[in-house]
Amino acid sequence: MDIDYNQTLDLTGVACPINFVKTKLKLEGMPKDEVLEVILDDGEPIMNVPKSVKEDGHKVLAIKPFGDRFKLYVKKQ
Amino acid sequence: MTDILTEEQIERYSRQIILPEIGGAGQKKLLRAKVLMIGAGGLGSPCVLYLASAGIGHLGIVDSDRVELNNLQRQIMHSTKTIGVMKAESAKERINQINPDVKVYAYNTRLTSENIMGIIKDYDFIVDGSDNFPTRYLVNDACVMANKSFSHGGIFRFDGQAFTIVPGEGPCYRCLFSEPPPPGLVPSCQEAGILGAVAGVVGVIQANEVLKFVLGIGELLVGRLLIFNAKDSTFRIVKIPKDENCPVCSKAPRITKLIDYEEFCGIRAKQK
């Protein structure tokens, strides 16, 4: 099942913590309840970014495998 | 210019943008802020280094002295290379090396009742890191009259103190000490000696007060005098009430014009 999203951010090859910083800044500029799709590498990025996004108060809707990477869907709170 | 953070700014400030209390919005506040540092010495050095590093976009530096060899034990923003250079200029050079985002305005002058209002008017927050009572009282009175918030810092031997004044909200420095001590009674910093690290602790606390003020987070040292003892490694907080009869910040102030007090120790006078 596909998830509708309003904006997308490809963070392939972007290391921690800059990937989270970029996600955070993108979310800051979006209206509440909009959904952001974030493409993240396997390993540290997919381990850390969803956790940090949750700690910032946003809602993680889903994490889906995307080849050797992942797609994270976040609802801005 | 500060509407969108550049890639370089995102990387440079990433570790503080991560903080929920700061984020991109907070970083933009810092980049827009205008802070005036009075004194580029023992307190000014650590304070300015942290403010410049954090990306305070506009930093004014006031100091009428030149860098001397005996300053370098505690005035860590200057260097052996800048001995003989005006301190405000030496500070500007150092800040430019650290962070090109910061616009630095050097004032190679001593604050007086004549020039202080014109200088402080352009700034959001003032940091007093001066080493003498005439300037300290002048800064307090001018800031109260101009309704400018400021941080007071003082150091003496192994002791330090910090206090933040938000006019209208809490007490001012005169609520704490209504008049300067008589000349000759209190030894100046030059006579008393000072441990460099004590200046570092207090100057960094002042920088922290600036950052909190600009970001609008936490509790400022308003009405709370923070006292640091380096020998015991202790901090104490002393609550300071507003003085209803304060000569400058009460409802019926006695002092309504700025005062140029006499220099307290003869050292500076002899040098001139």
In summary, what is this structure?
The complex is a heterodimer of chains A (77) and B (272). With 77 residues, chain A is an alpha+beta fold.
What does this structure look like?
The complex is a heterodimer of chains A (77) and B (272). With 77 residues, chain A is of the alpha+beta class. A 4-stranded mixed β-sheet of chain A has the order 1-2-4-3, with helices on one face. Chain A is globular and about 30 Å long. In chain A, α1 runs parallel beside α2 (44-55). Chain A is built from 2 helices and 4 strands, in the order βαβαββ. Chain A has one domain (7-75): TusA-like domain (Translation Initiation Factor IF3, 2-Layer Sandwich), CATH 3.30.110.40. Chain B has 272 residues and is of the alpha/beta class. Chain B has a single domain, classed as NAD(P)-binding Rossmann-like Domain (Rossmann fold). Chain B is 35% helix and 17% strand. Chain B is built from 11 helices and 8 strands. Chain B has an 8-stranded mixed β-sheet with strand order 3-2-1-4-5-6-7-8, sandwiched between helices. In chain B, α7 links the parallel β4 (125-128) and β5. The A-B interface holds A 17-18, 20-22, 24-25, 28-29, 52, 55-57 and B 5, 10-11, 14-15, 17-18, 20, 23-25.
Please give the structural blueprint:
The complex is a heterodimer of chains A (77) and B (272).
Chain A: E1 7-10, H1 18-28, E2 35-41, H2 44-55, E3 59-66, E4 69-75
Helix pairs in contact in A: 1-2
Chain B: H1 7-12, H2 14-17, H3 23-32, E1 34-38, H4 44-54, E2 58-62, H5 87-98, E3 103-107, H6 116-120, E4 125-128, H7 133-146, E5 149-156, E6 159-165, H8 173-176, H9 189-192, H10 196-215, E7 224-229, E8 234-239, H11 266-271
Parallel strand pairs in B: 1-2, 1-4, 2-3, 4-5
Antiparallel strand pairs in B: 5-6, 6-7, 7-8
Helix pairs in contact in B: 4-5, 4-10
